[in-house]
Structure formats: structure tokens, C-alpha cells
Amino acid sequence: MRKPVVLVSADVKPIEGFDWHAAISSYLDALVHGADAMPVLLPALGPALDLDSLLDRVDGVLLTGSRSNVHPSLYGGDAHERNGPFDTRRDATTLPLIRRALARHLPLFAICRGLQELNVALGGTLVSEVQDIDGRRDHRAPESDSMDERFALAHHVDIVPGGRLAAVLGDARVEVNSLHRQAIGALAPGLTIEAQAEDSTIEAVSVDAHPGFALATQWHPEYWVGSDSASARLFAAFGEAARAQMTATARSAA
């Protein structure tokens, strides 16, 4: 029996005169080992892609984190050098991808930048430099050459009781890592808050109209999927949803 196929968003990385379309290996490893799924990278080619043909062939979508931020022009903000860098080709790919994937009720897991893309795609806004807002903590990663230190669990989040995230992780607090400068500002219509940090930063959301798995986290569960229970449960649940989608697609085609 084949494993479910998950479409993974890619960044555009200029390297030595060439534009590379890439995703960090931890996301791919988490899909293979944590979700028991096969990842396929989606190049950030924007309107050149036939997204519907691609989505016909996959069982879920994973939106990765990135050093780049969603361009502020897409949610009514002003672009400044400080709230960059930007990747407009990724924006032109992921925002329409999100809308098409949700319309098809495909399983969707959005992480960090992915959560922010989801909010913008559905009409919400973002705030930049969260650490400069009164009452907010510094959500940036610690300065270190060690990735384990940068991705270390940094604070807890409170999960909304009875919500979709609680169905996966339970209602208790969980410890999460923190590597972001931006966060959700105005929540998009059709999204529900699933978890928040003590400083009120929105840490997880779900899509109201989606009948299955459509969750987004501001933290990075992919990094600790092999050792952290909450991270492992998130990717396992996503994998289960992708397998259910694969089975349903096969039955409808029979």
C-alpha cells in the first residue's frame, strides 16, 4: 500500500547566482518519520503552476516556516527593511495554494510562516517585531550556533479546551519553542484560536469550515518530532488525516 503524499511549500533561495527552491530537511524528516508520509516539494513558481492539477495528486499540504516574512502589501501593511526579508514568489504560490487546498478540504498543516500565510490568505493581518510591543515577550530564537539551542522549548502555551488542537494534544499546557518576530494581528474570518501564549500571542489556529485536519502552529513541532510527545502527536495526527484522505480519494475513483 502506498503512503500518502504531502505537498511541501518551498522558499526561493538565491545561491551563487542561481535561484534554488528549497525546504529545510527537518520538515521533510518529520513527514517521513513522524507522519509516515512522502513529501514532494512545491517550487515557488506562482501563477506558472497549475495548482489544481497538483492538488489532484496529493493527500495533504504542509506549509513550512522560513526566515522570510509575508509581504506587508498583502495585508495592508507597509514594507520596511526591518520587517523583511521577503519572498514574494513564495507568497504568490502559497496564498492561492491555501485557498484551493481548503476548498478541497485537503488536510493542511501550517507552521510558523505557514500560520501567518494562512491568516493572510483568509483576510487577516500580521504584526511585526512582536518583541517591541508592550506586554509581549521576545519570541525570537536565542543567538546561538547550536540549532538545538535555537529550537529549544522556550515557553508554554495554553490550549483552548474542547478545540481541535485539544483533540490532538489534550487541554493541558504544552511547552513550545519560539523563533519568530511576526505574529497574527487581526484574526482572519473563518479561523478559530486554538492556543495562546501568556502574553496573548496567538500560537495556534484552526479553519472553521474544514471538516478534518486544518491546523496551524506558530511554533516548530517538526524539529522535535522524534523526542517531544506533543510534536510527535501533531505529525502523527496529520499523517492519519492524509491517509484518510488517500483512502477516500481511492474509493471515489473506484
UniProtKB/TrEMBL annotation:
Domain of life: Bacteria
GO MF terms held by the record: gamma-glutamyl-gamma-aminobutyrate hydrolase activity
PROSITE patterns tied to this protein: GATASE_TYPE_1
Region forming the signal peptide: none
Pathway: Amine and polyamine degradation; putrescine degradation; 4-aminobutanoate from putrescine: step 4/4
UniProt keywords, alphabetically: Hydrolase
Name of the protein this chain belongs to: gamma-glutamyl-gamma-aminobutyrate hydrolase
